[in-house]
């Protein structure tokens, strides 16, 4: 026995035995009451019950000990004790079980006499598991044990034989008063009383047979075996045979236990071993499929899920498993068909009726899964929304349906409805950080950054290391342009890169914050870190080059720009910046000219690229061509003052050259001064443009998701 339930069963059994042993010390030699063992018994009974509810049955075992061993009472008192226990059965937690599904315990929802015949047949079946624990199975639900639907079923003979043998044992223990009968009484109390709550006889439980509930009854069974061996071994002619038989029994059971341990090595080995015993339980086929699915072995898992649907065609969960596996195999059409079969098995929707107690909650996921599948098709968004609403109508407190519907409505740009869906989900669960995060995303789409930031903060209060909330809230603070938010944004980005150290975007945004704060050394470090993680990171490479340019390190910017243009040869802002550096700092007019011509080959209407090419013509002293170029630029941007001014300078130069050669030299000198002045003006414009370029690049990165 393993797992949480198995451990609880073992703990309960230990406390149950300890409680019984303590109670046996509560009667003094003169039949007086010793209170210390009784107080200890009460504590141990409470511990046994807290571990597993059937621990309370030790009270009945103690009652049997008190009546027949301590007080020496007889049959009438036994009948009265049993009557009191049965009258108090409603106190057991089992009486408060939820409505059962037919897949868990088919007999529980069967008609008379099938229900009674099947439940009584389970008694000899459990006894057989004690007598011959050969074919063990981890799950006995669903179709493991066929229903006993008729009194003519031969399995009823096993029921009669069981009751006959149990009656003989009870008669023997009550008829005689010697020590042997008292041993049998206590053995029967250990077998019967702890088993009653799980027997299905007085109230149905959520399983047909469960080997774990036989742990305490097996103690009583072992007492019977040991007692029988003691009697037989004292008979001279049977002594050797009895020792041989008991030795063989212990050896075979030890080997079986050792072999069984290997079945519990993993989920896969456990459920495959169960399939060797029982192939009519769809849950076992599903569980093997789940084990394979966890190993990403979807093809093999699909075969098991399909077999589950063949064994139990009306099992909604099996069809959902098939659909999910087809989806994982990227077979959307087959996945949809499987989900539609599962959906067809759901009860029909009755407006205004709540289905929370009628349908297994996990079965409602068929609507969510089907809607999530079909909403990938833009033309079927309304159909997906209808499925979400149907799930909500069947269970108004279905939180996941509101969350998924909110995501869909956001995709459909129905922002108010998406917000309402998330608000309704928050009414059901205000401690869900993901819900607050999703609501913040809706606020951003609704152009309400202040409310978005509040909801991001709610998410981070609930989960201070919520990665998406950290990143997006910090980005929102950064984009606000308000310096008062920068320290907190920086702190959140730092936490984010701790959580996601391989995400280049976190380091890039730290670099952008540092640039905003004029912390150039830190900005350079973060940008290089981002580029190291993501080769060809467009935004990081450009902003690193821009950082060098603004820091008067234009030559250092060239390697970054070369790397940028190697990965993104049509990056216009990168070409502009490289052309400016080549022309103004390297005096490489040919290189600059190639950059600007490349820009115009990509975008012939680019004003800045066109203007800078005109400046190259001017530097090459090709004034007529510079004039034509500036005229064309002015036609593209008639309101740009700097284009008009530069065209005027070129025309004056052309006019001065045409008058007098000697004045031309003078004009040349004056042109140099004018040129110097105009260069300063251009430099001022370029500096402003560089700042604008940085912001434009950041916005472009956010929009493109780079």
UniProtKB/TrEMBL annotation:
<dbReference type="GO" id="GO:0060255">
    <property type="term" value="P:regulation of macromolecule metabolic process"/>
</dbReference>
<feature type="transmembrane region" description="Helical">
    <location>
        <begin position="154"/>
        <end position="172"/>
    </location>
</feature>
<protein>
    <recommendedName>
        <fullName>Protein O-mannosyl-transferase TMTC3</fullName>
        <ecNumber>2.4.1.109</ecNumber>
    </recommendedName>
</protein>
<feature type="compositionally biased region" description="Basic and acidic residues">
    <location>
        <begin position="669"/>
        <end position="684"/>
    </location>
</feature>
<dbReference type="Pfam" id="PF08409">
    <property type="entry name" value="TMTC_DUF1736"/>
</dbReference>
<dbReference type="Pfam" id="PF13414">
    <property type="entry name" value="TPR_11"/>
</dbReference>
<feature type="transmembrane region" description="Helical">
    <location>
        <begin position="184"/>
        <end position="207"/>
    </location>
</feature>
<dbReference type="InterPro" id="IPR013105">
    <property type="entry name" value="TPR_2"/>
</dbReference>
<dbReference type="Pfam" id="PF13432">
    <property type="entry name" value="TPR_16"/>
</dbReference>
<dbReference type="InterPro" id="IPR019734">
    <property type="entry name" value="TPR_rpt"/>
</dbReference>
<keyword id="KW-0812">Transmembrane</keyword>
<feature type="repeat" description="TPR">
    <location>
        <begin position="399"/>
        <end position="432"/>
    </location>
</feature>
<dbReference type="InterPro" id="IPR013618">
    <property type="entry name" value="TMTC_DUF1736"/>
</dbReference>
<dbReference type="GO" id="GO:0005783">
    <property type="term" value="C:endoplasmic reticulum"/>
</dbReference>
<feature type="domain" description="DUF1736">
    <location>
        <begin position="102"/>
        <end position="166"/>
    </location>
</feature>
<keyword id="KW-0256">Endoplasmic reticulum</keyword>
<keyword id="KW-0325">Glycoprotein</keyword>
<feature type="repeat" description="TPR">
    <location>
        <begin position="282"/>
        <end position="315"/>
    </location>
</feature>
<keyword id="KW-0808">Transferase</keyword>
<comment type="similarity">
    <text>Belongs to the TMTC family.</text>
</comment>
<comment type="pathway">
    <text>Protein modification; protein glycosylation.</text>
</comment>
<dbReference type="Pfam" id="PF07719">
    <property type="entry name" value="TPR_2"/>
</dbReference>
<keyword id="KW-1133">Transmembrane helix</keyword>
<keyword id="KW-0802">TPR repeat</keyword>
<dbReference type="GO" id="GO:0016020">
    <property type="term" value="C:membrane"/>
</dbReference>
<dbReference type="GO" id="GO:0004169">
    <property type="term" value="F:dolichyl-phosphate-mannose-protein mannosyltransferase activity"/>
</dbReference>
<feature type="transmembrane region" description="Helical">
    <location>
        <begin position="58"/>
        <end position="79"/>
    </location>
</feature>
<feature type="transmembrane region" description="Helical">
    <location>
        <begin position="34"/>
        <end position="51"/>
    </location>
</feature>
<dbReference type="Pfam" id="PF13181">
    <property type="entry name" value="TPR_8"/>
</dbReference>
<feature type="repeat" description="TPR">
    <location>
        <begin position="433"/>
        <end position="466"/>
    </location>
</feature>
<keyword id="KW-0677">Repeat</keyword>
<dbReference type="InterPro" id="IPR011990">
    <property type="entry name" value="TPR-like_helical_dom_sf"/>
</dbReference>
<comment type="function">
    <text>Transfers mannosyl residues to the hydroxyl group of serine or threonine residues. The 4 members of the TMTC family are O-mannosyl-transferases dedicated primarily to the cadherin superfamily, each member seems to have a distinct role in decorating the cadherin domains with O-linked mannose glycans at specific regions. Also acts as O-mannosyl-transferase on other proteins such as PDIA3. Involved in the positive regulation of proteasomal protein degradation in the endoplasmic reticulum (ER), and the control of ER stress response.</text>
</comment>
<keyword id="KW-0472">Membrane</keyword>
<feature type="region of interest" description="Disordered">
    <location>
        <begin position="660"/>
        <end position="684"/>
    </location>
</feature>
């Amino acid at each position: 026995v393993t797992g949480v339930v198995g451990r609880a069963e073992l703990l309960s059994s230990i406390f149950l035995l300890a409680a019984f042993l303590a109670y046996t010390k509560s009667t003094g030699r003169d039949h007086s009451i010793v209170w210390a063992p009784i107080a200890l018994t009460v504590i141990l009974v409470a511990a046994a019950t807290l571990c597993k509810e059937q621990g309370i049955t030790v009270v009945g075992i103690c009652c049997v000990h008190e009546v027949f061993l301590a007080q020496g009472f007889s049959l009438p008192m036994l009948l009265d004790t049993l009557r009191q226990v049965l009258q108090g059965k409603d106190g057991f937690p089992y009486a408060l079980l939820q409505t059962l599904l037919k897949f868990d315990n088919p007999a529980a929802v069967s008609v008379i006499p099938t229900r009674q015949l099947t439940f009584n047949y389970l008694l000899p079946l459990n006894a057989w598991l004690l007598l011959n624990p050969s074919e063990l199975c981890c799950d006995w639900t669903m179709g493991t044990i066929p229903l006993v639907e008729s009194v003519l079923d031969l399995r009823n003979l096993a029921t009669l034989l069981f009751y006959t043998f149990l009656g003989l044992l009870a008669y023997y223990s009550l008829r005689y008063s010697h020590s042997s009968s008292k041993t049998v009484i206590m053995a029967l109390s250990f077998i019967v009383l702890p088993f009653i709550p799980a027997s299905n006889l007085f109230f149905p439980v959520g399983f047909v047979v469960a080997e774990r509930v036989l742990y305490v009854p097996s103690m009583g069974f072992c007492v019977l075996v040991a007692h029988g061996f003691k009697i037989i071994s004292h008979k001279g002619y049977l002594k050797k045979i009895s020792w041989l038989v008991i030795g063989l029994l212990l050896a075979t059971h030890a080997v079986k236990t050792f072999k069984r341990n290997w079945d519990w090595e993993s989920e896969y080995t456990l459920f495959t071993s169960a399939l060797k015993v029982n192939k009519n339980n769809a849950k076992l086929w599903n569980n093997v499929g789940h084990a394979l699915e966890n190993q990403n072995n979807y093809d093999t898992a699909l075969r098991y899920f399909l077999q589950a649907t063949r064994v139990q065609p009306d099992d909604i969960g099996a069809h959902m498993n098939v659909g999910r596996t087809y989806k994982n195999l990227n077979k959307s059409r087959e996945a949809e068909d499987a989900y539609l079969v599962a959906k067809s098995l759901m009860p029909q929707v009755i407006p205004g009726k709540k289905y929370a107690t009628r349908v297994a909650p996990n079965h409602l996921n068929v609507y969510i899964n089907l809607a999530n599948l079909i909403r990938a098709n833009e033309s079927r968004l309304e159909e997906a929304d209808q499925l979400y609403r149907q799930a909500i109508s069947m269970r108004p407190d279905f939180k996941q349906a509101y969350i998924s519907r909110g995501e869909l409505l956001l995709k459909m740009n129905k922002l108010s409805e998406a917000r309402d869906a998330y608000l309704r989900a928050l009414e059901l669960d205000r401690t869900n950080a993901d819900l607050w995060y999703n609501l913040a995303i809706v606020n951003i789409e609704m152009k309400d950054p202040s409310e978005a930031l509040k909801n991001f903060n709610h998410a981070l209060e609930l989960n201070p290391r919520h990665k998406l909330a950290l990143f997006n809230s910090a980005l929102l603070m950064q984009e606000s342009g308000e310096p008062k938010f920068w320290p907190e944004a920086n702190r959140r980005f730092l936490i984010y890169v701790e959580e996601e150290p391989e995400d280049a975007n976190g380091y890039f945004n730290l670099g952008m914050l540092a640039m905003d704060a004029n912390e150039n050394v830190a900005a350079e470090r973060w940008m290089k870190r981002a580029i190291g993680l993501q080769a060809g990171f467009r935004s990081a490479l450009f902003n690193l080059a821009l950082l060098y340019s603004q820091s008067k390190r234009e030559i250092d910017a060239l390697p970054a720009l070369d790397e940028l243009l190697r990965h993104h040869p049509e990056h216009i802002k990168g070409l502009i910046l490289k052309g400016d550096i080549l022309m103004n700092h390297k005096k490489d007019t040919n290189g600059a000219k190639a950059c600007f011509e490349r820009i115009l080959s990509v975008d012939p209407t680019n004003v800045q690229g066109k203007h800078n090419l005109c400046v190259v013509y001017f530097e090459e002293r090709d004034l007529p061509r510079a004039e034509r170029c500036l005229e064309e630029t002015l036609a593209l941007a008639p309101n740009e003052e700097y284009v008009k001014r530069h065209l005027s300078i070129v025309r004056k130069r052309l006019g001065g050259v045409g008058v007098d050669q000697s004045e031309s030299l003078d004009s040349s000198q004056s042109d140099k001064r004018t040129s110097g002045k105009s260069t300063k003006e251009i430099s001022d414009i370029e500096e402003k443009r560089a700042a604008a370029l940085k912001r434009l690049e950041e916005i472009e990165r956010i929009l493109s998701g780079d």
